[in-house]
Amino acid sequence: xxxxxxxxxxxxxxxxxxxxxxFGALTWVFKxxxxxxxxxxxQYIARLNAAAAHQQQIDTQKxxxxxAATTARAAQAASTSPGRTGQSTGFDxxxxxxxxxxxxxxxxxxxMQLVNEGNYVSAVRKxxxxxxxxxxxxxxxxxxxxxx
Length: 148
Prior knowledge:
The chain is mainly α. It has a domain at 105-147. It contains 5 helices and no strands. The chain has helices spanning 6-32, 40-80, 106-117, 120-131, 135-146. The longest helix has 41 residues, at 40-80.
């Protein structure tokens, strides 16, 4: 039924021997491989994880230092510049520096003259020039003088 020539039989036997040799070699490699010991890839991943954890720790320490420095600066700025934090600056809206009422103060008399004449913009400008007040503070002061 089946006729096999000598060369076909030889080729088939060689193929089977090669397959058994390859299977045996792979089995030997995996059985002799040390178990429990990490390979190079596992060691590399472990080193990467350790480096990432170390870098995260360094970043956390830097963030804490920055947070502490920011808090210290904010406290220092609050103590040196009370107006920035909403605390009272001690500004007297009734009588800004150089604008105390009285017959001996020429600045106050000139501002009162401008207010009485209706030159509110000029009065605000004069107050800002003489005292260094901001626009809003000078306007509030002129508004308080309108009632006098």
